Amino acid sequence: MSFFAAMRFLILMATLGSRVTVVRIPASIYHRWMMIWHLLLAATTLAQDTPTEREAAHDVIRKMGQLETSLDVPALVAKMTAPNADREKTAGRARELMEKELLAMADDITKHPEIGFEETRSVGILTAYLKKHGFEITPGVADLKTAFVARYKGSHDHPALGVILEYDALRGTKGPFHGDQHSAQGPVGMAAAIAIAELMERTHAPGSITVFGTPGEEMMPPVAKTQMFDAGVFKGIDVLVRSHSSPSTQRPGAGFGSCCLNIDGVKYTFSGAPSHQMMPWDGRNALEAVIHLFVNIDAVRASIRPEARIQGIITEGGAAPNVVPDRTAADFYIRYPDEVYLAQVREFTDNAARAAALATGTKVKIDNYGRMRDGVSSATLAELAFAYMKHFGGTKVDEAPGKPQGFDETGSVSSAIPGIGFSAATTNAPYHTYGMETDALAEIGHQGFVVDAQAMTALLYDFLTRGDYRAAVQKEFDGIRVLFDEYRDSLRKVYKNPEVPEPK
Amino acid sequence: MSFFAAMRFLILMATLGSRVTVVRIPASIYHRWMMIWHLLLAATTLAQDTPTEREAAHDVIRKMGQLETSLDVPALVAKMTAPNADREKTAGRARELMEKELLAMADDITKHPEIGFEETRSVGILTAYLKKHGFEITPGVADLKTAFVARYKGSHDHPALGVILEYDALRGTKGPFHGDQHSAQGPVGMAAAIAIAELMERTHAPGSITVFGTPGEEMMPPVAKTQMFDAGVFKGIDVLVRSHSSPSTQRPGAGFGSCCLNIDGVKYTFSGAPSHQMMPWDGRNALEAVIHLFVNIDAVRASIRPEARIQGIITEGGAAPNVVPDRTAADFYIRYPDEVYLAQVREFTDNAARAAALATGTKVKIDNYGRMRDGVSSATLAELAFAYMKHFGGTKVDEAPGKPQGFDETGSVSSAIPGIGFSAATTNAPYHTYGMETDALAEIGHQGFVVDAQAMTALLYDFLTRGDYRAAVQKEFDGIRVLFDEYRDSLRKVYKNPEVPEPK
Amino acid sequence: MSFFAAMRFLILMATLGSRVTVVRIPASIYHRWMMIWHLLLAATTLAQDTPTEREAAHDVIRKMGQLETSLDVPALVAKMTAPNADREKTAGRARELMEKELLAMADDITKHPEIGFEETRSVGILTAYLKKHGFEITPGVADLKTAFVARYKGSHDHPALGVILEYDALRGTKGPFHGDQHSAQGPVGMAAAIAIAELMERTHAPGSITVFGTPGEEMMPPVAKTQMFDAGVFKGIDVLVRSHSSPSTQRPGAGFGSCCLNIDGVKYTFSGAPSHQMMPWDGRNALEAVIHLFVNIDAVRASIRPEARIQGIITEGGAAPNVVPDRTAADFYIRYPDEVYLAQVREFTDNAARAAALATGTKVKIDNYGRMRDGVSSATLAELAFAYMKHFGGTKVDEAPGKPQGFDETGSVSSAIPGIGFSAATTNAPYHTYGMETDALAEIGHQGFVVDAQAMTALLYDFLTRGDYRAAVQKEFDGIRVLFDEYRDSLRKVYKNPEVPEPK
Amino acid sequence: MSFFAAMRFLILMATLGSRVTVVRIPASIYHRWMMIWHLLLAATTLAQDTPTEREAAHDVIRKMGQLETSLDVPALVAKMTAPNADREKTAGRARELMEKELLAMADDITKHPEIGFEETRSVGILTAYLKKHGFEITPGVADLKTAFVARYKGSHDHPALGVILEYDALRGTKGPFHGDQHSAQGPVGMAAAIAIAELMERTHAPGSITVFGTPGEEMMPPVAKTQMFDAGVFKGIDVLVRSHSSPSTQRPGAGFGSCCLNIDGVKYTFSGAPSHQMMPWDGRNALEAVIHLFVNIDAVRASIRPEARIQGIITEGGAAPNVVPDRTAADFYIRYPDEVYLAQVREFTDNAARAAALATGTKVKIDNYGRMRDGVSSATLAELAFAYMKHFGGTKVDEAPGKPQGFDETGSVSSAIPGIGFSAATTNAPYHTYGMETDALAEIGHQGFVVDAQAMTALLYDFLTRGDYRAAVQKEFDGIRVLFDEYRDSLRKVYKNPEVPEPK
Hints:
homotetramer; six-stranded mixed beta sheet
């Protein structure tokens, strides 16, 4: 974290230098500057957390630089953000909806928090509003009670625009609360979707607009967006947008990555045989098994690269002290910066479980109930979104490009469909705090939500109406996906298991 | 278990032989026989489960034989059981109460099972009945909601007779059930208590009769009888009786011991420091601590005598896999045949917990929430109870004296106050089964409960009315207590910790 | 140990009683006495150490009693030990050899101790002497440098008599020493073998006499006698005798068993991959593997019957602290009273090793380098040997029959060929002490060695010359072997693995 | 490693840029460039391996930049390296000694490798040569048999120049070998020392020259240089030089640091109580203790910052499988990038040992037999040394400044006395290889050794003759030491132990 902060500082200085020199120093020098800048940029804006990853990514970084250079994103953004009254009008409609009705709705949802997969009241409010504005609702998609799809009636053509809504609250010690401001995502997304829908209606522009209600962002299992993606819910969508609250107006980097490492959520369940404590040899102890799952993992921590994070809890630890426990379970989050070595880490932890069962005469079931992976982030979308957030009044602007990460927390959707998250400043508090909930009801929250709604509308306007922009987005997205594959291939070559000879 | 069965077989043969030879072989031979018989008897009827214990008990066994010989229990029993119409009449009153009202009450309680410390309905029924028959109720004694004392009004003198009732059901997977037939103990005990109370009323015999309602026999913590004893509830009582269902009409051995080893119930609670999984070094992992409590205990299992039984469960194993667990807990039953070495075993397990905390940077709290210890069993009471159970029709008679064990499961009461449990055959099923619950409602149960009620009444009658019997009971009880102390002293000399030199 | 001591005490009393009563009490009483006596005898003289074993052996014990009763050993011994001048003369020749030459040779070997498999000097002395007395030497049998066979020239017929010699010294902290007096076994056995050889020569009695030099009794691997047996070295021998020093003149019990449980000696070797400490993830840690072999075994100690003894050491624990260890090894002795459950214990320990390898990404080799098993001991041989040892002046006589155990420490030979060990008192020190070495050179040692030599000669005389005796020995041996098989079958039914369902 | 490689690449590019721009772009731009360059330089050339360290070092980095800027090292180096015939002549004398005698001596020592603390032959050759050239030898200093001090006779004044020699070989599987070319360090250092001694003689320049023979660089314990330093052997010396073979001509960075983290070498010895395997409860198992030392460390690996490297071996793992082990030992290298957090890591590992003893009833001795710490490296010495190595023909020049690290492997000496190591390219093989030994005898080795000898002579010449240079060296050294202290203070504030509340 502090490492990236340090790197950003260097980049800012370099950027400053380059700007000054643009007009004064010869092209050859400028060219060198740019190379350095791109390298530094690439170094931070790719997902390479470890020396090994950075080494493996050497070529990919270079090609990513070439890709970005070829797209000339600054010029593209300049072109798109040129004055356009119609776009301003459409964005203005989103602001109007927010101010008249939707900020109040956001406040209401904030005050009635519901945790993941139980957001029935919130979903009722959102779908009623969408229905009223001409959207057709398909509830309970992908076997998720509080997931829904709302397609604007009659819209079916390409470009197919999608807006993702979230609405689940956090689990607090004092009950559910909206400490991550998901309460406002529904109103923000609906403001944009309705403004665009009305635009389509008005202009008969080809295209469609669909709203996706996605439950339980803060929980797994199930991994809602992955389950929806696997069920084909997002099929045919050309671009997806989403808003998310933030302590600053953020500028996502381009590339692939995730905020908090790639994650496997795994449950290990052991069965043994019960027996009275007086004759334990007639039983098989499932508690010893789950204990030795942990002990076995500890035994190989030093044999696993130090960037891994393996953490578990014991969810079932036996029923009574005078009976040999015959059923126990543990829940693990297993993380690594990249999914290639993560698979090796999983092999270690799964073998730890198998070994625990083998040693204790018990049996184990391994359930990989959830996966979080790198998503894709495009500069063509991110830089335009950033420009619009600033344009519409985003405060506390952070110019430094962040680590790239997809617009969805699972990576399932964002690695398959281009898209972007809008994060105008909406709070002075850190993530996941009661302060953030308070800010959702305050001026800072309201102001930021309206910025997000307008910026989202403006970007969707451009995507709907400008074929050149769509082409650039698609070109970049395809390019990054190819590089992402190249990167994983490269990692696969690096991460070899050491050879262990037969003992003599 | 099978070992003791085998030994009993030998004893029976020897006993048989001795009886036959009494009149036919010379005194010297008879003397030898008796020595062997006493040795064999002592070998089984004392609590010495291990070679070390048997060696330490060598002198105690000899003195126990002398004590029993000096009491001449068979002659005493023969004297007490001589025909007595008044005793029969009193016992008959107990049978009458059973048959008229109390078997039905037992059935009712059987059908409305309540687990330990929640037996409010059962206690309501029992105390109402006692009140109706002239007992004064003190509810909620010793801070236990469903414990009570019921003293027969006006009775306050010595001999002070006490009757222990139990009424808690088992915790079954399908809810509470009376698989140990505690449901009948209230009715049986009340029948005897009321019959004796009416006798006192009628004869103005000096003495008092008190009924003790003791909850939660099947659960700890709290250890109800110990808590009641420590609160002085049983103070001043001269003899205590209790019934308990059984698959056979049993003959308890004399001495000290427990059914299932001496037990310490201990809860180990660990506190650490929470931290997000991404930065676990900012936390201290309480789950690792509790895991290593188990691992540390396993590490010394081979250094602990093999008769120990140490078994635990993890009752709190962490809250969420992405947060370093900051609080965990384990619950252990720690058992050993004698309490002297049990203290050494506890030192091992407590050190295992302290070491786990030390190694993981966490803290531990050790809560020894319950203790089960050897109780005292007197032949003067046991042999008379056995004779009466046979007299009143006890079926499935097992003539072999069982391992001595006190009349209460904690040893707290039975090692301090003389007493006896009545166990006429009341079931064809093993302990702790649904079959036993069914039998409580059937003829076999009813028949045995009535036997217990009458035998209990008869023994209380003798104790109330015969000073010579009370003196013999007291002499034996005092003698066994002295030997019990001697035995523990002897063990303390045997169980030395090995000397460990400083490492060089 | 103390348990058996206690039981012996009871038996002695019973035995004493029975003798007295034989003439005085009626047959019915005597009969009961005898039943008890046999039961008690069986209880001690079989190898059943655990309740489960005793239960499984119930029928076998009964049949063993029937077998022994049918043989009427006391009568057989009385018949054999009747005065016989020729036998005395033959035994006298053995004494003469001892006194003239062989005690001096024993002293010499005592003073030049050589540890197992390095006894070249001792073997040289012994074989030279045998050669001089007409034996043909085959050195280095069964691939053991210091093993040999010495067959008396021309002798080839049945009955084939065999004498086992041992000569290895103990490994002391100050070098090899004869703290177990194996130094005298060669001289004792040779005295008997030569006396018998000369008898054959003189009488032309059919039969043969062979001396077996067996190295390394105190060491494994290799397990010398098992290796010799497997190589067919003892093929065709009808009876084997051996002497062994002892603090008392001992009376071995009849049946099957071993002194110190059945044993598997197992070496576990792990291989990993080396790596510098700075990058341990490029290696696989074989030290963690061997550590977790121990930890895994500890994890199931409570799931293994408490009579097991599993103890190991780490013989290779890594080479340098800054390199991930790529090779480690542990050496275990795994013991259980019977070989049937021992196989289950081995499955636990082998799985502990496999699990350790699986969890750590290493590989394991399992080498069961040695096995010690129950041997067979026959009353027809033991009681006659005991009678002769007393006859020739054995001191410090212990009348109580010991736990049955074969005449060889591995059980390989003694469970296949009838035989007996002679243990007249030769020392006042415990086994494996410097005191025992000193006594080998003193009067107490010399006196006992001469007793052993004569008793051995006398028994071999009887076996050579008396067909009825040979038949009785064979009948008992065959009977015990059948019962041994029955016992193991019975155990196999008892020791079931608990069923473990698939986890849900 | 690859991370630093990547950073160097960036720096090289930036450096290249700056050179070009120096003459073309305005001062303001140049100034910015320089700031960036210094930041980047600082980022790599300080010892901050972790984000936390870099954060803690923020101010120190800035001040280090100021210090280096104030010294204007490039100008200093330019001034010192200006043509000087006398210096060239002196360096030429060193070359002459190498070519005439000392390369042959190096070859001889290479061919007669001796491992650490056994280098008697090598020391004999070196001291004889020094004696012949007027040095007075003090052998066996600091209780180290193969350590020595050789002071040039009559020289006693300041500046006091010191030359460190090493001569130990590596421990190979096939015996000792000179795979790190220490064999040449004696000749190289002596060539310089004698050339300077002759200069002093000739010019009567005030000052002294002392040669330090330091054994066992590749081994501990003992940590030879620390032991010598603590014994005052280096007292009063103003500058120390040393050569070391290298695959390239290296340019050490300025600051403080170590090649391979700060290290504590610790031996943990456990004592228990022995007992036969049959009665393990009479013993205390020291093997379980050492095993649980490892297991306890594994339990907290996730609670320790991931840059730690903790690796151990079991050096004593028990004597025999049938005896409870009563003595075991483990040897650990414990590493962390800085010594402040290393102390916390040590607390974890020491507590792991204490907890293992507590849990197993054994005792532990903790012996911290060796410490390796950050040393100080000065640009005033390093840049001049680098310039001279290039001047005298150093090949395979690596212009990128390396991570700063002291001239001695322990840090004890280099953090107290200014000094520098000379590393001209002398091999094509990696460190610690047979290839490196071969190269010591080949042209590439010989050529490099002669470069080192001359460069060392030249730098000593400057230090001896130029007060301004000495002042600059001292100023930098003092400044870095102050910053080093500041850095450690800053770290002490960062590394807090988490608060653990009492469990409730």
